[in-house]
Amino acid sequence: MAVRSIFRGVGRYLPERVLSNEELSKTVDTSDSWIRERTGIGQRHIAAEGETTSDLAYAAALSALKDADMDAQEIDLIIMATTTPDYTFPATATLVQERLGIRHGAAFDIQAVCSGFIYAVKLADSMIRTESAKNVLVIGAETFSRILDWEDRGTCVLFGDGAGAFIFSAQEVDETDINRKGVLNTFIRSDGRFRELLYVDGGPSTTQTVGHVRMIGNQVFRHAVRDISQAMETCANEAGIPVSEIDWFVPHQANQRILNGVAKQLKINPEQVISTVEWHANTSAASVPLAFAHAKVDGRIKAGDLVMLEAFGGGFTWGAALIRL
């Protein structure tokens, strides 16, 4: 028997305001057909004035606690993935911790852009395996609309705001059980050589400004399909599980063409790939848990299923996590 990370629940939150392609085309030189053909996106949610990343994260955390039938006081670690924190410091996770009324344990942020949630899952799993935490709240939350150049149609049409959260708990499992539940394996990578293909042109120690997202889309696309496919294959192989045995694939929701490209490369049935990009657009670190929550609520993902999570983001960063519910 060994202590492993067991999935307990998932939560989500999307801002009330919906910005459609048609509405966006009134202020940017674009159209619904242009956006859909290139990305698959039809709309995105935008945080209201005064609505912060911690607001979104807190709502998603409450949703996850309800789904897990747990009290906030049972949580002893909060790991939050975000590129759009409320402040340079303190960590946005500590703001969520305070609002949940938690006065014990620890809370901190990590930054790996769109791959942040996968990185956070790996870290949560490591903390549980080493018995440093028992119940971990993992949050991906973004107000990406705050760092967009709304005159740049190559980027502003792609992103939206939202938050998603998982809860993992420590549980003793039989490692010899081929159907055992929990986090079976995680894999993360990065390569800083490609920073200028996807980045924000500002920061505290460079420009002393927030900056805006800049991207060379066609080059990002090529790297994303290759690296995501490789990450999922590696993650599955290290777990000793063929990709063909995985029930569901929950990718980062960047672009429907990337999702299709990865499915084709790995010979995955497209119907096994969860896609919410049409309704949510790219919500960066929030996209994986939001897509997972969507499929769990509609009944597709259920107890006992084998699920592969994956993401790719600026840095470049990428990774995958294999979980049996």
Helices and strands, with pairings:
Blueprint: E1 2-13, E2 17-20, H1 21-24, H2 32-39, E3 43-46, H3 53-68, E4 77-81, H4 92-99, E5 106-110, H5 116-129, E6 135-143, H6 153-156, E7 161-173, E8 182-190, E9 198-200, E10 213-215, H7 217-239, E11 248-251, H8 256-265, H9 277-280, H10 287-297, E12 306-313, E13 317-324
Parallel strand pairs: 4-5, 4-6, 11-12
Antiparallel strand pairs: 1-7, 2-3, 6-7, 8-13, 9-10, 12-13
Helix pairs in contact: 3-4, 7-8
Structure report:
With 325 residues, this protein is α/β, with parallel strands linked by helices. It folds into two domains: 172 residues, Peroxisomal Thiolase, Chain A, domain 1; 143 residues, Peroxisomal Thiolase, Chain A, domain 1. The protein has ten helices and 13 strands. It has a five-stranded mixed β-sheet, sandwiched between helices. The protein has a four-stranded mixed β-sheet with strand order 8-13-12-11, sandwiched between helices. The relative contact order is 0.19.
The DSSP helix count reads 10
Number of strands: 13
CATH superfamily of the largest domain: Thiolase/Chalcone synthase
CATH-defined topology of the largest domain: Peroxisomal Thiolase, Chain A, domain 1
Spatial arrangement of strands, main beta sheet: 1-7-6-4-5
Total separate domains: 2
Q: Do you know the CATH architecture of the largest domain?
A: 3-Layer(aba) Sandwich
